[in-house]
Amino acid sequence: MSLEELKFTKxxxxxxxxxxxxxxxxxxxxxxxxxDVVYVELPxxxxxxxxxxxxxxxxxxxxxxxxxxxxxxxxxxxxxxxxDNPELINQSPYEDGWIFKIKIEDExxxxxxxxxxxxxxxxxxIIE
Amino acid sequence: xxxxxxxxxxxAEIKNVIGIENTEELFSDIPEDKRYYPLDKIPSALTEDxxxxxxKEIARKNCFSEYLSFLGAGAYNHFxxxxxxxxxxxxxxxxxxxxxxxxxxxxxxxxxxEYQTMMTMLTGMDVSxxxxxxGGTAAAEGVLLALRKARKKSRILISSGLHPExxxxxxxxxxxxxxxxxxxxTDEQTGTVNLDDLKGKMDENTAGFIxxxxxxxxxxxxxxxxxxxxxxxxxxxxQAVSEAMSMAFLSPAGQKGVDIIVGEAxxxxxxxxxxxxxxxxxxxxxxxxxxxxxxIVGQTLDKDGKRGYVLTLSTREQHxxxxxxxxxxxxxxxxxxxxxxxxxxxxxxxxLNEISKANHLNTxxxxxxxxxxxxxxxxxxxxxxxxxxxxxxNMKVDNFLGELQKKGILCGIPLKWFFPDQQEAILVNFxxxxxxxxxxxxxxxxxxxx
Amino acid sequence: MNSLxxxxxxxxxxxxxxxxxxxxxxxxxxxAIDKNKVREDLESFPxxxxxxxxxxYTNLAHLNHSVDSGFYPLGSCTMKYNPKINEKIAGxxxxxxxxxxxxxxxxxxxxxxxxxEKWLVDITGMDSFTLTPAAGAHGEFVGMQIIRKYLSTQxxxxxxxxxPDSAHGTNPASAHFAGYDIKExxxxxxxxxxxxxxxxxxxxxxxALMMTNPNTLGIFEKNIMEIxxxxxxxxxxxxxxxxxxxxxxxxxxxxxxxxxxxxxxxHKTFSTPHGGxxxxxxPIGVAKHLSGFLxxxxxxxxxxxxxxxxxxKEGIGRVKNFYGNFLVMVRALVYLLSLGRENIRKVxxxxxxxxxxxxxxLEGLLDLPYKSRTLHEVIFSDKNLKVKTLDIAxxxxxxxxxxxxxxxxxxxxxxxxxxxxxxxxxxTLDSFVEAMKEILxxxxxxxxxxxxxxxxxxxxxxDEVLAxxxxxxxxxxxxxx
Lengths: 128, 450, 481
Description:
The complex is a heterotrimer. Chain B has helices at 8-18, 48-60, 82-88, 91-94, 106-123, 135-150, 164-174, 195-201, 223-232, 318-321, 334-370, 397-406, 436-447, and strands at residues 68-69, 127-128, 155-159, 180-184, 206-212, 236-241, 260-264, 280-284, 297-301, 307-311, 376-378, 387-392, 409-410, 413-414, 425-429.
């Protein structure tokens, strides 16, 4: 899968849009910053969240980080594989390490997301 | 002075290296008129022999040991094998810090891991932490845990059968947060939680109910019935225990539907110590593990694949989460937990079986023997563990206790200390340290007050 | 000690016995509890002989580094020597009364509580004390509650507590549990809070500033009196975290510096043992206008007799069972009596001398982020080093030295916080400096030795990620090691 398909947020989440479903995970930069992931609290399927609301969290040995949903909507699925293998987020942040799928309620919110190349620029700004 | 190894020569050399003339220069940041205040109020140093003499004098002003005591209510006089203190007081257990460098703390960490395990065995739960301050603050932490896990709920129900100090402490803890608490009545006839009142007071905003078993009046509650009722209403069942010895005799809470168990484990080898240090504990079903307060020890491997132990799930704690932590607790009662663990391992399965039963049998014997008197009454004659409520019918409780005190007996704790409407009742406790002779002495002395 | 110690459950065997106690005189017929409430068995519970108990725990003890075995320069922990006479007195049976004993039969114990309170009043210049909190964090929580109650009676508890960026994690956690929101206030380039910055943060929502003094950088907050004045003018209060009191006990008093509420750690400054994580005791001292709000119980002398007050209307209520950690108080009192007027000041002086000696000796080799005057602890950072602070710490273990505090406070990169205390000889300090020199040389020439350290400890570096991923917090019966 190429990164170009993905959109990004300032909080280092990526979003893959498939019709009315958005798949969400965290970027490679984010997983590196976190270090070894030891636990992921997945959002319950059926729960609804507003854009920007904390719906999940990722725990490393040193910190717990909230994951904010980039899209308002209802959770339709979450990655159960992360329960026994949270390290998938470190190993494959864009594929096997996906976190949850959410049904897009308001398409206009997608406009607030960054394209892949803009996210790269944004990262360069941070790293400096 | 023997705790100050620096000699004057050392001090001079150090000052030379640092580049100062006077020691006072080190404190130049402290406002001049506020530093080096006169020390005339501070007494002169005592030598070691003078210390011993002084404290013997102070100890002579205590005369409690002259009495045969039946005081309980959250602090219990049990037998501790000699070997327990001998081991726990080793300098390697007493003087290290929190095991932040696990490679040189495996002794403490493994001992804690064993303690945690034994606590789960006693409580029937999946996980125990490595100590809280005491039973009262543990009760508060248990309540906060339930509220945290229940997320959108803000209400907690508290049984009036909880130790009154535990209720006071819970209130102090939740007073400043956006939570509400309500008391659930105890049925006067049975001495247990009034289930109708519990049902009536529950609503969708209730996160859980905390009850004590055996309760403050000594009675064992029907934890299963209580837990079932709570779960029907999607609320958590929180049990408090002030007499940990009861857990060795009674069915484990985890098998009776309880979600969170908290309490006081002083009974596991810790001296009465005029109230502290004691040992708070918390144990829960595995769903709660990430919300638990306090330290937790976990098993892992080292670089060479050797088994070892570390503090784990630190991301819950204050040094990482700061104001978002599950609790502000840092220093806890770790040494007390280690001591309790050694006690439990030493007494073992057989010792705990025998002694926990002896507590109950002694109490039952007393209840049977005083049954012949009409000037006093045991309020609840069934389902007590090792404490009973004794009602005095023919005189004021203060007189009753005063007369018994003259005979060298501290019969119990007057309930009016805690409940103004219970003027005529006393809480009396029996442990394995009371022999038949002691109990007979109490029975006889009570008989003489007809 | 080469072999791995077994767990007590792995030594356990049916039929072994570790205790001896007289049999009960009564038969099971007397049992007065419903059968379904009684446990069937204590399955899997250990059964071990007394000999094996002694060996098991003795061998576990050998695996621990402790103050009794060596240098323990953990910053902000004050790992000073724990006097053994303290243990003897705390172990006196004549003091180990039931806490609900009628006051007439425990006058000696009540005198002990009262005496220690008086000592602490004299040392800190505060008006009155409560000894009930069980630890520093507990004391912080109690202190913030007192502040809240006081402000409430003034009409408004307010919403925010200001906390410096260098503060210990318990400060914001405790303030949060007392019902406050936290606002972080930055330290200046000298590592302290300056008044102008504070004034920018002051408004009608600010209840208090929680300030550690000396702070976690080991630096005295020299603007404290001006800060106190600015706070009081704003209707706010000054809370002092006294965890670092070892730096100036007997030299200056928080009460003279404008502090409204202070907590002390008996298990730090006052020599009571850390016990691997407690028990401690975190007394709270308050200024006169707050003394009515102390928690229960309080002990007073009335008509020649010590009496106990269990209920105080204006107070914050109860925060702990019974009187607090009484036997910890006993140890602290013995310590103070042993120090006396002649030595109480030397504690702070020697503690500060020792810390400055180490600073001077290591200054050239490690980055010193703050050049201000050091009191009882000194902070270095791992800037310009080829290795991380953690690696240096782990290598120190191979030298039989417990590492300094690492990665705290957060405002210093790779912080190394060194607090030698006054109970260390110059020889110990010199050997620590030598060890550090050797390690730093290794860091230059052979960093893998540090990265793979420790090498000589009972276990090597432990996998904390595995511990958190595959949580195992108790022994399970079918275990294979």
